[in-house]
Design a protein that fits this description.
Blueprint lengths: L1 E6 L7 H11 L3 E6 L3 H4 L2 H8 L18 H4 L1 H8 L2 E7 L1 H9 L5 H8 L4 E5 L3 H5 L1 H12 L3 E2 L3 E4 L5 E5 L3 H12 L9 E6 L4 E2 L5 E2 L6 H12 L3 E6 L11 E4 L3 H11 L5 E4 L6 E3 L18 E3 L3 H7 L5 E8 L3 H11 L4 E6 L11 E2 L2 E4 L4 E3 L3 E2 H18 L2
Parallel strand pairs: 1-2, 1-3, 3-4, 4-5, 8-11, 8-13, 11-12, 13-16, 16-17
Antiparallel strand pairs: 6-7, 9-10, 14-15, 17-19, 18-21, 19-20
The structure holds cytidine-5'-monophosphate.
Length: about 400
């Protein structure tokens, strides 16, 4: 996983070198971004040597790359899209002010605006600067926006004063980063099979039936399970999403292909989560030539597809089985029915007509229906958080079935 570490101009900048090493111990790939002031305290060379990567030091020219060029000018966008997290340690009052007010005048402040990755800041400064209402208001604004703040420690400060403002301990910063990234070890030793995306059922060589599934929920599940230490098999219908790193990715197109891959790979898995929006019907016959326009109406005959989840339910054994129910009406009733019909341990149901839920959104609003009759209604969360809540519940089921 890739992380950008912003280093800003404070005495504590030297501590960022140790931080890089600790982050690397967590198998994180660190790209260092330094502000101009930071380079007064520690040289880019230190970080380049530690990370084996060039250090980004300016918006229009990167270290050693000579004069400004188009490539370096758009680099912040490339970095912004590549990273899984932006950490700033130490974060000065100045950078917090820039972040809070959307000022993008150097690489780091531009990166903050350009990235959708979560942001963690570890402030360090003089106690009066820390306590100043301007700094505190900036922090309140950042927290409200979802930025994670690792509060500074109290103690002796480089300026000779004593109080809050000392950069938090390296361990506290690393712990927060792992927490935000969902890096845990509670799925170590488990193999999780996830299905994701839509399926496509061909009518003829150029046409097919599909649905609005983006695959985001299934990919979030695969990513979350991987970050929690599981071996992950992701059987995916066609999507535009980036293939999660470290995951065994199995691309498929039709329900039949998905069925084949799932049944084959399920033997390896002790948890199966079927998040794919599988076609329930397919054309009864696929034409080998393009269907021509006729004068009258055209009737398409559809046949049911195999229900993969139900098939897994029939040979369940100890495997935990989770299904999804995307509904437009009678959500609870349909979900309960599916729980029994498909012999699943859990059904994750959502009303896809609700804003912020369902297809092609980054968030979801779901209710988890469990075998023991419990219904857990989750608030609107991003799909990665929904994925983790589902995985928490899988662990809970496993714990109680021992
Ligand atoms: O019955 P329905 O299609 O609404 O059930 C949804 C659940 O069943 C999802 O978990 C989906 O992945 C799974 N499913 C399946 N095979 C099908 C249809 C649905 O595995 N042919």
């Amino acid at each position: 996983m890739k992380l950008a570490l912003g280093v800003t101009g404070g005495v504590a900048a030297y501590k960022a070198a140790e931080l890089v090493r600790r982050l690397q111990n967590e198998k994180l790939d660190v790209q260092v971004v330094m502000t101009r002031a930071a380079q007064e305290f520690i040289t880019p060379l230190t970080f380049a040597a530690l990370t084996g990567q060039k250090v980004i030091t300016d918006i229009f020219a990167t270290a050693g790359s000579g004069p400004a060029n188009v490539e370096s000018a758009i680099e912040h966008i490339a970095v912004a899209q590549r990273i899984d997290l932006l950490l700033v340690a130490p974060a000065t009052a100045d950078i917090l002010g820039k972040f809070a007010h959307g000022i993008a005048e150097d690489f780091l402040s531009t990166l903050y605006l350009a990235t959708k990755a979560p942001v963690v800041v570890a402030p360090a400064m003089n106690v009066n600067m820390w306590e100043h209402p301007a700094t505190q208001q900036n922090l309140t604004a950042l927290r409200a926006r979802g930025v994670h703040v690792v509060d500074p420690d109290e103690g002796y400060l480089a300026c000779g004063m004593t109080g809050a403002g000392r950069l938090a301990a390296t361990e506290s910063i690393v712990k927060k980063v792992c927490e935000v990234l969902g890096l845990r070890h509670d799925f170590t030793g488990q193999t999780v099979l996830v299905t994701a995306g839509p399926t496509c059922e061909s009518l003829d060589p150029v046409r097919f039936l599909t649905n609005r599934s983006s695959g985001k929920m299934g990919y979030a599940l695969a990513e979350a399970a991987h970050r929690r230490g599981a071996r992950v098999i992701l059987v995916s219908g066609p999507t535009d999403l980036k293939i999660p790193q470290g995951v065994d990715w199995v691309p498929v197109r039709s329900t039949e292909q998905m069925q084949r891959s799932v049944l084959e790979r399920a033997r390896e898995a002790n948890v199966a989560i079927m998040a794919a929006a599988v076609s329930d019907f397919r054309p009864a016959a696929e034409q080998d030539k393009k269907i021509k326009r006729g004068d009258g109406t055209f009737t398409l005959e559809l046949e049911p597809t195999p229900d993969i989840l139900a098939e897994l339910g029939r040979e369940k054994g100890n495997r935990i089985l989770v299904g999804f129910a995307a509904e437009t009406n009678n959500v609870a009733e349909n979900a309960r029915g599916k729980l029994l019909r498909k012999a699943a341990d859990m059904i994750v149901a959502n009303d896809v007509t609700q804003a912020g839920a369902g297809f092609d959104t980054d968030t979801n609003i779901v209710t988890l229906f469990l075998r023991d009759g419990r219904e857990l209604a989750l608030p609107q969360l991003n799909k990665f958080d929904v994925a983790n809540r589902i995985l928490d519940q899988v662990l809970d089921i496993q714990k109680h079935s021992k």
